[in-house]
Amino acid sequence: MGIAIHVWKEFSSMKIKQFIQRILGSKKQKPASGGMSANPSEKMQKMMSMLSNTREEELTCDEVFALLDQFTELAAQGEDVAQLMPLVQQHLDMCEDCREEYKVLQSILHGTA
């Protein structure tokens, strides 16, 4: 889904305080490996950046998933996929889950899986 839809669904299903805690990370969370956890202001900046990059026309995760094999094959052929499929590229730039799927497909195509 587009990031704005993700954020709205989360926001509409919880109270504002819970939503902000979710964005900034729960104080009860363990630090990341290495003893450092992400700075809450960095998380807020990341979220604000993602929101500012939303567009009127976006693809959902399901729509991107349906196009991901074609996108991956075109990229493997050296095509400019950002120009050919800009909405898919935009979604991949913003959605970690779909980006991971794309990386898996790339590794399969390149025989590194």
Instruction: Tell me the structural class.
Output: mainly alpha
Number of distinct beta strands: 0
Outline the biggest β-sheet: none
Shape: globular
State the domain count: 2
Q: What value does the Rg take, in angstroms?
A: 17 Å
The SSE order reads: HHHHHHH
Percent range for helical residues? 55-70%
Cα separation of the termini: 26 Å
> Strand content of the residues, in percent?
under 5%
Mean pLDDT: 76
Regions with little confidence, pLDDT below 50 for 5+ residues: 27-36
Specify the number of helices: 7
Structure described in brief:
The chain is mainly α and 113 residues long. The protein is 66% helix and 0% strand.
Descriptive notes:
The protein has 113 residues and is mainly α. It starts with a helix and ends with a helix. Helix 4 packs across helix 6 and helix 4 (61-76) packs parallel to helix 7 (96-109). It folds into 2 domains: 3-28 and 36-52, no CATH class; 61-109, no CATH class. It has helices at residues 3-12, 16-24, 40-52, 61-76, 81-84, 86-94, 96-109. 66% of the residues lie in helices and 0% in strands. The radius of gyration is 17 Å and the shape is globular.
Salient structural properties:
2 domains; single chain; mainly alpha; 0% strand; 113 residues
